[in-house]
Amino acid sequence: MALDGRLYASGGFNAGCLTSVERYDPAANTWEAAAPMTTARCNFTMAVLDGKLYALGGYSGVYLSSVERYEPALDAWEAVAPMTVRRIAFGVAVLDGKLYAVGGCDDGFNFLSSVERYDPVTNAWEAVAPMAEARAEHAVAVLDGKMYAVGGYNNDGRLNLVERYDLATSAWEAVVPMATARRASVAVLI
C-alpha cells in the first residue's frame, strides 16, 4: 500500500500471522520498521483514506471483524469501529470519503454478497446494498465515481462476472463479464 510517497508492507504470514510493518522510501532506497499493528493479521485488506492507512478484517487464529488505522505523522495505530461481519478474502475500496468492505468469506467460510460502509467522521459501519453474486478473492476498484467488483470465486468456481455499484442509486448492476474467469486478481486505476 502506498502512503505519503512510501510503500508499506504490513502483516501477512511467516510461520504465523504478523503484526510487523515496514515502509520503503524510494528516494533513499531503504526499508525501515514502522509501528506494528495492534493485531496480527493475514488474508486481510488495506486501504488509504484521508492520509491514513486502514487494516481491515483477516485472520489471526480466528476470523476478524476488527479494523485499525495508522497515523503516519504519529507512527501509531489505533482501533476504530469493527465491521459488522468477520471477513477474509474480501475487497475494499474508498468511494466518496468512505471505506467499503465488499464480499469475502465469513467465519463459517460462507461466501458473502454483503457490503458495508465505514464513515470515518461517525466511526460507524452501515450495511449497503449487497452484490447480486457472493464472491471472495475478487478485485474491487473505483472508476468514475462507481465501484466495481471483478471476478473472484464462490461455490460455482472461478468467476468472470463483474458488478458495478452506483452511489447515486445505491444499487449494483451487472456489466459485461470478462473473457476469462479469474480469482486473486488485482484491479488498478491508472
Secondary structure blueprint with pairings:
Layout: E1 2-3, E2 6-10, E3 21-25, E4 30-34, E5 45-49, E6 52-56, E7 67-71, E8 76-80, E9 91-95, E10 98-102, E11 115-119, E12 124-128, E13 139-143, E14 146-150, E15 153-154, E16 157-158, E17 162-166, E18 171-175
Antiparallel strand pairs: 1-2, 2-3, 3-4, 5-6, 6-7, 7-8, 9-10, 10-11, 11-12, 13-14, 14-17, 15-16, 17-18
What does this structure look like?
It contains no helices and 18 strands. The two termini are 15 Å apart. The relative contact order is 0.12. The strands form 5 sheets. Strands 1-2-3-4 form a 4-stranded antiparallel β-sheet, with no helix packed on it. It has strands at residues 2-3, 6-10, 21-25, 30-34, 45-49, 52-56, 67-71, 76-80, 91-95, 98-102, 115-119, 124-128, 139-143, 146-150, 153-154, 157-158, 162-166, 171-175. The chain folds into 2 domains: 1-80; 97-190, no CATH class. The protein is an all-beta fold and 190 residues long.
A few lines on this structure:
0% of the residues lie in helices and 43% in strands.
State the share of residues found in helices, binned by percent: under 10%
Spatial strand sequence of the major β-sheet: 1-2-3-4
Report low-confidence residues grouped into runs of 5 or more.
Answer: none
Q: In one word, what is the shape?
A: globular
Mean pLDDT: 93
Class from secondary-structure proportions: mainly beta
The helix-strand sequence is: EEEEEEEEEEEEEEEEEE
Domains (count): 2
Q: Could you tell me how far the N terminus lies from the C terminus, measured between alpha carbons in angstroms?
A: 15 Å
Please give the largest β-sheet.
4 strands, antiparallel
Strand proportion, as a percent range, falls in 35-45%
